[in-house]
Design goal:
Elements lengths: L3 E6 L16 E5 L2 H9 L27 H15 L5 E5 L2 E5 L7 E3 L2 H18 L1
Antiparallel strand pairs: 1-2, 3-4, 4-5
InterPro entries: FP_C (IPR057251)
Protein name: (diamondback moth) hypothetical protein
Pfam family, one: Baculo_FP_2nd
C-alpha cells in the first residue's frame, strides 16, 4: 500500500428507481506510473473483498483507469461496435482507448467518434474487397 498517495470516495452512484443503491466509486491516486501499471496488471487477481479481507463480504471489486467523461463515452461507443461485431477488441491503456478489428489487425488509437466510424468503414471496405 506504500504506492497509494491518496484515496477518496466519490458521491454515491444513482441507481434506477426501485433498484438497490450502488456503492460509491473509490478513486486511488498512486505515487507513480509504474505503480499504476502494476495495479492494472494485477487487477484480475482481486475479484472480491474476500481476496483482500478473509472475513468480509463477497462484493465484487473492479479496478479500472479513471477516464474523463469524454473518454468514457468514446469507450462506450467503441464497445457498442464490438457488440455489433464491427470491432473485435476494445481496451484502455494509460487513458487511451485502443481497438482492433481482428486478431491480426494493427492497433488503432481512438481519439473521437469519427475515428471509430473511420476504422469500422475502412475494415468493412477491406472485407468487401477481399470477398
Amino acid at each position: 500500500m506504500s504506492e497509494v498517495e491518496r484515496a477518496w470516495r466519490l458521491r454515491s452512484n444513482q441507481a434506477k428507481p426501485g433498484a438497490a443503491k450502488l456503492p460509491a466509486n473509490i478513486i486511488v491516486k498512486l505515487r507513480n506510473e509504474a505503480a499504476q501499471e502494476e495495479w492494472i496488471k494485477n487487477r484480475r487477481k482481486i475479484r472480491s473483498n474476500l481476496d483482500i479481507y478473509p472475513d468480509s463480504s463477497t462484493s465484487p471489486i473492479y479496478i479500472n483507469e479513471d477516464l474523463t467523461k469524454y473518454n468514457r463515452e468514446l469507450l462506450w461507443q467503441a464497445k457498442q461496435k464490438v457488440k455489433e461485431n464491427l470491432l473485435k477488441f476494445v481496451w484502455v491503456n494509460k487513458g487511451r482507448i485502443l481497438c482492433k478489428t481482428d486478431e491480426q489487425s494493427r492497433t488503432h488509437v481512438v481519439n473521437c467518434s469519427a475515428d471509430i466510424n473511420n476504422i469500422v468503414t475502412k475494415n468493412s471496405n477491406q472485407n468487401k474487397n477481399n470477398s
